């Protein structure tokens, strides 16, 4: 699958065959890729070619054939004359649910909302990587994390869903509000899409809170 981009900028999802060609067993072992590869995005922009690799552990398969993932990792590899060089890595894992001692059920990349596009039209791809967790009430009491990679820096929005009002809260990195306005607006559109799909329950008035550049907001702070 190839995504339309501005001139000279493109991203595509590698096939399984292409993934195996680029990411051999020896490279994976050397680079710390020890979970099954979910997806690889091949990206090209004015900085060159790079690959974003999403991996998830497969820990439990339910009677309904659902797979639970207890850990995830993502990697960025840049292509140079010496081959693929790892430039960054991120990881996360299930934790205790909010307001009780039960563990979250699963954590996984939300590829439906993640994007690898040149959003501010500077001929550089602005990766937006999104993942979440599930609990007893599926995503209704899980966590959501939105990571924006912009010119070598990482910016995050962390959200806790909740079935009860007091359980919900959102934290925004201060630096997020220094991003180009077009990029901030695009992230908000994704958040609205997640809400419309029933996968996110952001606190009441969250759009207003973000316009005010608030770093934390919940149902008790309107």
Q: How would you explain this protein's 3D organization?
A:
With 222 residues, the protein is of the alpha+beta class. It is 16% helix and 40% strand. The protein has helices at 16-22, 25-31, 181-196, 206-211; strands spanning 2-3, 10-13, 37-45, 48-56, 60-61, 67-68, 71-80, 83-93, 106-109, 115-117, 126-134, 143-150, 153-160, 169-172, 216-218. Strands 9, 10, 11, 12, 13, 14 and 15 form a seven-stranded antiparallel β-sheet that branches.
Secondary structure blueprint with pairings:
Layout: E1 2-3, E2 10-13, H1 16-22, H2 25-31, E3 37-45, E4 48-56, E5 60-61, E6 67-68, E7 71-80, E8 83-93, E9 106-109, E10 115-117, E11 126-134, E12 143-150, E13 153-160, E14 169-172, H3 181-196, H4 206-211, E15 216-218
Antiparallel strand pairs: 1-2, 2-3, 3-4, 4-7, 5-6, 7-8, 9-11, 10-11, 11-12, 12-13, 13-14, 14-15
Count of helical regions: 4
Radius of gyration: 18 Å
Helical content band? 10-25%
**What distance separates the N and C termini?**
42 Å
The coarse overall form would be: globular
Low-confidence stretches: none
